[in-house]
Automatic annotation (TrEMBL):
Keyword Ligase: yes
Protein species of origin: Pararcticibacter amylolyticus
The name this protein goes by in its record: Glycine--tRNA ligase
Gene3D superfamilies: 3.30.40.230, Anticodon-binding domain (3.40.50.800), Bira Bifunctional Protein, Domain 2 (3.30.930.10)
UniProt-annotated binding residues for substrate: R102, E190, F237, E238, Q239, M240, E241, E344, T345, S346, I347, G348
Gene Ontology BP term (one): diadenosine tetraphosphate biosynthetic process
Encoding gene per record: glyQS
Ranges of residues in domain Aminoacyl-transfer RNA synthetases class-II family profile: 126-382
Physiological role: Catalyzes the attachment of glycine to tRNA(Gly).
Length: 487
């Protein structure tokens, strides 16, 4: 990470806390590693991202429906899915610091340093060697790479490493009144299995015909050892997933369709195209016959935001085998029964949140001559902005607050509106810029005479005089979901 990028990322993290977007969980008790809370503005932004995904996935597709499955599931679910026996990460411990790390992430950090220092050939060689070791599940080779490239522990600075071992990432707990008699169950490490075990319920009750999809937004839990890059990698996180069930043999056609459709969803927000790229998996999961990541260029490099996977019929076949229930589809077009194949789209909501913050954050120098001035603005798409408009009476007297409240009461029926009367109008503008509010509406003495207000636009800072009766239309046009869903 370059100095400028490092500084940008630190500033975004600081901004997120200062303006009520993200807080460290249990901060008054010195926090909990790799766990975060979303503040008042963060919760609004997060909900708006969810709404955009849900509308584009469920509302805009006649053959996709949504569910909300429970976090707790029958423990055999995770045997069938392979998580009990195979949901592991290669971990290595430093004997001096007593810290545990993911071996592949230590190597990835070294690759990034090689690239930063201009040693591109060395970086490419190490990347290839790591990919081969991961594909072969060769833990000894991973450790050899760490030793060969003199990778040190970030805490102790030493190279006193243990062997690389596999570490299961699932959280387990007990369900039952008495611990000795309790059954071991797991906090779900992904939301996909809740969809698969409900395939029959949804298909029958919804009278769904293949191809069709089931979408879900929900929490998942992974015992990540290392807190990395703010909310990029957390122990408790949220996923937005859709499993699309197709006829065997047609999966690659649908795989390509969803690759392009999902990238289009991202770009509709106005993100520069060069900030995104596809990254094909070199090591496929045992259930997949194709997999690609949509990566975004964060300040710390290109990282996965969303995955598109062709999962074959593995999941439904496994649940059919372990449950003893027939999970098949009768296809009247070909007069055949079969276990459907699945194309998965899975996006990390927290990563999308961070992407959105970073992409919107801008520090502007507004100085003119000897007059120094600056602002921090979040150029959020109006649909995603936590607050759509701020109502600002010019003074706290002369009937201006009452008039401002009248306007707020009218607008808040359709939009999230904020009322603010403290500090100078300039300071109030800056506060709203910092949380990404598209419009500031100033109520002054003229407003009492002719029912007009001054509306200020966040991105241009231009102001215009408009009739109060026009505010519904002006704000509604800018924050309408049609602006995103119609693209």
């Amino acid at each position: 990470m370059s100095k400028n990028n490092d500084e940008l990322f630190k500033n975004v993290i600081s901004h997120a806390k200062e303006y009520g977007f993200v807080f460290q969980s249990s901060e008054i008790y010195d926090g909990l590693s790799a766990v975060y809370d979303y503040g008042q503005n963060g919760a609004e932004l997060k909900n708006n991202i969810k709404t955009y995904w849900w509308k584009s996935m469920v509302q805009m597709h006649e053959n996709i429906v949504g569910i909300d499955a429970a976090i707790f599931m029958h423990p055999t679910t995770w045997k069938a899915s392979g998580h009990v026996d195979g949901f592991n990460d290669p971990m290595i411990d430093n004997k001096d610091s007593k810290k545990r790390y993911r071996a592949d992430q230590l190597i990835e950090d070294k690759i990034a340093r090689y690239e930063k220092d201009g040693k591109t050939e060395k970086a490419a060689q190490l990347q290839t060697a790591m990919d081969e070791a991961l594909k072969a599940d060769n833990l000894t080779a991973l450790r050899d790479l760490i030793v060969e490239h003199e990778i040190v522990c970030p805490v102790s600075g030493t190279r006193n490493w243990t062997d690389v071992r596999q570490f299961n990432l699932m959280f387990s707990t007990q369900m039952g009144a008495v611990a000795d008699d309790a059954d071991v169950i797991y906090l779900r490490p992904e939301t996909a299995q809740g969809i698969f075990v409900n395939y029959l319920n949804v298909q029958k009750t919804g009278r769904m015909k293949i191809p069709f999809g089931i979408a879900q937004i929900g929490k998942a839990f992974r015992n990540e050892v290392i807190a990395r890059q703010f909310i990029m990698r957390m122990r408790e996180f949220e996923q937005m997933e859709m499993q699309f069930f197709v006829r065997p043999g047609s999966e690659m056609e649908w795989y390509d369709y969803w690759k392009q459709t999902r990238l289009k969803w991202h770009k509709a927000l106005g993100t520069a195209s060069e900030k995104y790229r596809f990254h094909d998996h070199t090591k496929l999961a045992h259930y997949a016959n194709a997999a690609v990541d949509i990566e975004f260029q964060f300040p710390f490099g290109f990282k996965e935001v969303e995955g598109i996977h062709s999962r074959t019929d593995f999941d439904l076949s496994q649940h059919q085998k372990f449950s003893g229930k027939k999970i098949q589809y009768f296809d009247p077009e070909i007069n055949q029964n079969y276990v459907p194949y699945v194309i998965e789209t899975s996006i990390g909501l927290d990563r999308m949140f961070l992407l959105t913050l970073i992409n919107a954050y801008e520090e502007q120098d507004l100085s003119e001559g000897d007059k120094k001035d600056s602002r921090v603005v979040l150029r959020l798409h109006p649909c995603l902005a936590p607050v759509k408009a701020a109502i600002l009476p010019l003074t706290k007297k002369d009937g201006l607050p009452e008039k401002a409240r009248e306007i707020m009461d009218r607008l808040k029926l359709d939009h999230n509106i904020i009322y603010e009367e403290k500090d100078s109008i300039g300071k109030r503008y800056r506060r709203q810029d910092a949380i990404g509010t598209p419009f500031c509406i100033t109520v002054d003495h003229q407003s009492l005479q002719d029912n007009t207000v001054t509306i200020r636009h966040r991105d241009t800072m231009e102001q215009e005089r408009v009739e109060i009766a026009q505010l519904d239309r002006i704000i509604g046009d800018r924050v309408s979901w049609k602006n995103l869903l119609g693209k």
